[in-house]
Prior knowledge:
- Chain A contains 13 helices and no strands.
- By secondary structure, chain A is mainly α.
Amino acid sequence: METLITLNKRPTSLYGQGVQKFIKNPIGRLGGVLFFACLCIGIFANIVAPYSPNEMYRGSELVAPNHVFFLGTDEFGRDLLSRIIFGMRMSLIVSFCAVIVGGIPGILSGLFTGYYRNSKITSIVLKIWDALLAFPPMLLAIVFATLLGPGPLNAAIALGIISIPQFSRIVRSTVLTENEKDYVLASVSMGVSHRRIIFKDIFPNVISPILVQVTYSMGAAVALEAALSFIGLGIQPPNPSLGSMLNQSRKYLYQAWWYAVYPGVAITLLLMSLNWFTEALMEALDPRSELR
Amino acid sequence: MTRYIVRRLIALIPILLIASILIFLMIHLIPGDAATAYAGMDATHEQIEAVRGKMGLNKPLYIQYGMWLSRIFQGDLGNSIVSHLPVWNLIMFRLPATIELTISAMIMAVLFSIPAGVIAALRHRKLADRTVSVVTSIGLAVPEYWSGLLAIIVFAVYLHWLPAGGRVEPSEGIIPWLKSLLLPAITLGYPIGCMQARFVRASMIEVMHEQYILVARSKGLKQGVIVFTHALRNSLIPLLTVIGVQLGRMMGGAILVESVYGWPGVGTMVVKSITQRDYALVQAVVLLIVVVFAMLSLATDILYRVIDPRINLTEQTRR
Lengths: 292, 319
């Protein structure tokens, strides 16, 4: 790597440095690999899963893990491994959609409320976000999930709405510091349009906190989706979802430990990979982390 | 100080108003008619209309909101759609169990976080520190409702040491009561303790690099005195803010933990009323939790200033 840099005689960009720092960090590597594995399992669920997630095998209800059903079966004789794989796909889809639903309006609101900080609309928008932040996240998820009704798409919308104020707040606080910098002043004095200043000048400088918030929100969405499905509000059976599988398993704790154990392992692995990824990303993109 | 409290209370008003509008809309935007649900399945058209008139459901939405809000200020949260009992009584009946659970969980969390955080900070980048960070990062990733199920499988199904769920009244014996409380409290407290341990570690590391610790060292004070009387007291101040925020968040976690263990608190009641579509009850509980959450964060901020006079000082010099 070092020879490459000296040959090109080009200093590495901030993001280049970030990537290098991320790869050097063992937690980042582990989180990245684990998340990539989860992603592949989710994308290629059809190929990876040994059986169809909804196929019921009569006579093999609640079978312990064996060489036919690697992780055992559930109360309807469905293969647990296949259901976990498809449940993971569902978690990933819902959390991706949630980040898009929450991220786009959140980022836009952060940019505009940060740039037009004295406008009337800004103070109203900020009040609304403050009101949403006054709810504990789990409770807000329950409110929106009951409002919208069950189902994967509605769960994604509910979880997205929750993350709007978080995105907005993080972007706005960065925009507020960027506003004061000379390059913005230079653009203003050259008569550059506001829209151009916001999107061409300021936006590139708030990408790092957005990246961190994206991975963080994905983790939060995975956890909340599973929690909602666990209390019966998110994804409904017979659709495979890790949370609702755990809910179903509670009736069979005395007969079938595997039913309650393996779906939870999948959620935990997914969450751990996202947490580690976020942590390493935060360190890699924070210019002050060198000092620590 | 008084001025600060008044300013913060005034700032709370618009936030709580917007939150209350959202909670109010929650029950009105849900498909299904509340009057039909209240009157029962086999009610005649006239009966339903009578209920609608009695509940004020035939008036415009903003008037209904005003009526709802004024009733709340009179302490009337409405009646449950399922049992027709006053919601306030139902909540108050269930609340002590939830408070008992959250406080025990918080005690568990603090008992774990302070020693773990201090040891990790003192052994910075050594084995003990790495162990604490692995344990805490697992704790932050494991969802409460799954660790609860695992704990039931291990301690109740296989080892038979502790009950699988439910709550025993303290009047039936202190030991059985504690036994019924132990697993739920640990399940709810563990992730929270992990979060706290990280804060204690970070602030302890920072404080140990302060000048006054160096002074204490050069005076020849013992390590124990430095850690416990000089460093720990200052590094626990950030923990206080974390605890304040967490107490609010724990109510979300309590809903899950209570329903795993069948703990007879507000959380199981909420989950049950969601499945029964008793939205009047859900609405009231959500409103109550939001108000408590807001008050808790205000109380934390005030306490923070009382404990750490440096915050007021910096604000005064800034003016």
